[in-house]
Design a protein that fits this description.
Strand content: 35-45%
Helix content: 10-25%
Largest sheet: 6 strands, mixed
Radius of gyration: 19 Å
CATH class of the largest domain: Alpha Beta
Number of domains: 2
Number of helices: 5
CATH topology of the largest domain: Alpha-Beta Plaits
Low-confidence stretches: 195-199, 202-210
Shape: elongated
Oligomer: single chain
Structural class: alpha+beta
Length: about 210
């Protein structure tokens, strides 16, 4: 069993993937159902497909993240996003097991925008919502690194912790800044030439925040 590009601790996710090598061929849907039944409530296996192509990890080129900033004025968030996108580089610091490391958060961001606030938390006051597409580079740039970049470029400092959720990950279309389904090549291969291979790829999507 191999997990690919797991979400950072403390974030929610609707798009986690794993590969499972089996000793014999199994029906993908039956495998999905068995795995789903064995997991706690809130962790749902939504799809399982036979791996007709190789390199799932190589197809996870970028992630789509949503960041909810409670008690942040959307206008302030828009100004911070504009300043971040206008910068050629945005250096941020993160403490790693090897000590404090400085790297460019701007290079990893393929797309960053503000969204209209949703009325899903009545009484919480103002709220800004960011949607961003982050390339999977080395070193990895996480949503909290982008928030550090917004603080560095525009002094945007949310008064409460951000709520972060990964919405998707997969192949990146650089021209449009969109992320496409990484399992599509496996579905196409299965339709073109059904295989008896015993390797399956399961897509796991936890509901809510971790």
């Amino acid at each position: 069993m191999s997990y690919a590009n797991a979400a950072p601790t403390g974030t929610g996710s609707e798009a986690e993937y794993l590969e499972i090598q089996l000793t014999e061929a199994r029906d993908p849907e039956k495998l999905r159902a068995v795995l789903d039944e064995s997991l706690p409530a809130g962790l749902d296996v939504i799809e399982s497909v036979e791996a007709g192509t190789s390199g799932l990890a190589d197809r996870l080129q970028a992630s789509v993240w949503e960041i909810r900033l409670d008690r942040v004025d959307p206008a302030d968030a828009e100004r911070a996003v504009a300043a971040f996108l206008e910068a050629d580089t945005v250096e941020v610091e993160r403490r790693t097991k090897n000590g404090l490391r400085t790297f460019d958060a701007r290079a990893a961001v393929a797309r960053l925008e503000t969204l209209p606030a949703r009325a899903d938390r009545p009484g919480d006051g103002c709220c800004a919502i960011l949607r961003l597409v982050v390339r999977h580079l080395t070193p990895a740039v996480r949503p909290d690194d982008v928030l550090s970049g917004l603080r560095a470029t525009a002094d945007l400092a949310p008064p409460v912790p951000a709520a972060v959720t990964r919405l998707a990950q997969g192949l990146l279309d650089e021209e449009s800044g969109t992320v496409t389904d990484p399992l599509a090549p496996d579905r196409e291969a299965a339709q073109a030439a059904p295989s008896t291979a015993a390797k399956l790829t399961a897509a796991m999507a936890p509901e809510g925040s971790a």
